[in-house]
Amino acid sequence: MRGADMADSSLGGPIGGAARSSGETLLFLTDDQLRRGIEAMFFAYRGFTADPDRILAEKSYGRAHHRAIHFIHRTPGTTVNNLLDILGVTKQSLNRVLRTLIEDGLVESKVGVKDRRERHLNLTEEGQELEKVLGEAQRKRMRAAYREAGPDAVAGFQQVLQQIMDPKMRTHFDQLKEGG
Amino acid sequence: MRGADMADSSLGGPIGGAARSSGETLLFLTDDQLRRGIEAMFFAYRGFTADPDRILAEKSYGRAHHRAIHFIHRTPGTTVNNLLDILGVTKQSLNRVLRTLIEDGLVESKVGVKDRRERHLNLTEEGQELEKVLGEAQRKRMRAAYREAGPDAVAGFQQVLQQIMDPKMRTHFDQLKEGG
DNA sequence: CAGTTTATGTCAGCCTTGTTGACTTTCCAA
DNA sequence: TTGGAAAGTCAACAAGGCTGACATAAACTG
Question: Does the pTM exceed 0.85?
Fold first, then answer.
């Protein structure tokens, strides 16, 4: 019922993609390896958000505010609709977060010139300061991790993460890559 | 204020760990690369949780139930305290989840033999069935990602994730690895 | 044995962040 | 001019975090 049985069953299907070289061991595709990846994602994501979360808690903001700030910083002048698409939440959910950020003077919302229905979002100076603090806290941990793991590991890390994404999200990710 | 300036500043410190070979390019440590890693983590985690989330929604359970089920499955007979440590939530939060799982007959709680204050947690047959469905949904995506990326990428993926974890969580992760 | 600590459970209340549904205002475009 | 897209708002709700207070049983300690 478990162990070897499960692992075998998971290898039953046809093999495609980068691992198609016929002589390959395929030991990296056992259920045991997959489970390790799953647990690593869980524990790592906790670490990944821990540092910004601490800073945000002091300012009585949450992770949702961080995400909004991050992507407004990344794509200045973005519309609400575009942000909704990237963040994958409802407009009511985003609006609540956006409203507090605008009220607190971290984000400014300007009516579109070409299409006056749209709102274009930008960080104020104060918003950029917070973004810098949050971003640097998060990068610090990533930088240390990258250093320890080395460039080849980092390349693999990026490759696997991209494959885990939903195709639609991968498109967004790729567009951000180009823009950066 | 941005771009090259930031990237340069981030490389100012002393270099340690696996990237210490002196002739290395270190381009993988630029703020731009780190940002890509951060965004990849964000988008990938969404994909990572998407499939189980869909299944759980049908049964009016949430991600918290999945996590409890996963780790009870991984360490059968674990105590509540141990689970609290791994999940990193308060006992009130865990208890709410655990209570519904016990009431619904997915988890059973047995008084400890050696120490009768402790409760030992196990999945019932029904609990194991749900774990299998959720686990297989999550593994399916990971398996596809692993296949596409290949074994070297997977090794790097694991390395970087382990470095991102808090040391305490890395200990838990390592213990689970051994046990598996 | 008395007192303390530990493990667990529970009640009450709060916050953030997600959801759905209904509705309005604005305004571009056919 | 009318349809529909974009944006915003209000209300209500749920999941899942949190704190604080308190109860109980068991184990440990002096």
Answer: yes
Look at residue B98 and tell me if it is in a domain: yes
Looking at the domain assignment, is residue B138 inside a domain? yes
Range of the domain at B96: 26-149
Helix orientation angle between B31-58 and B125-149, rounded to the nearest 10 degrees? 150
Q: How confident is the model at residue B148 (pLDDT cuts 50, 70, 90)?
A: very high
The pLDDT tens digits for B151-174 are 999 999 999 999 999 999 999 999
Rounded Cα–Cα distance for residues A84 and A3 (Å): 42
Residue B154 lies in a domain: no
CATH number at residue B94: 1.10.10.10
B46 in any annotated domain: yes
Distance between CA B147 and CA B94 in Å, rounded? 35
Rounded-to-integer distance, Cα B96 and Cα B42, Å? 28
Whether B157 and A156 lie within 8 Å, measured CB to CB: yes
pLDDT of residue B179: 65
Question: Shortest CA–C1' contact from A61: which nucleotide?
Answer: C16
Average pLDDT (A87-111) is: 94
Shortest-distance nucleotide from B96 CA to C1' = D16
Average pLDDT of chain A is 88
Of A residues 32-61, those with CB within 7 angstroms of nucleic strand C are: 60-61
Q: How many domains does chain B have?
A: 1
CB-contacted nucleotides of strand C (7 Å): 6-13, 15-22, 26-29
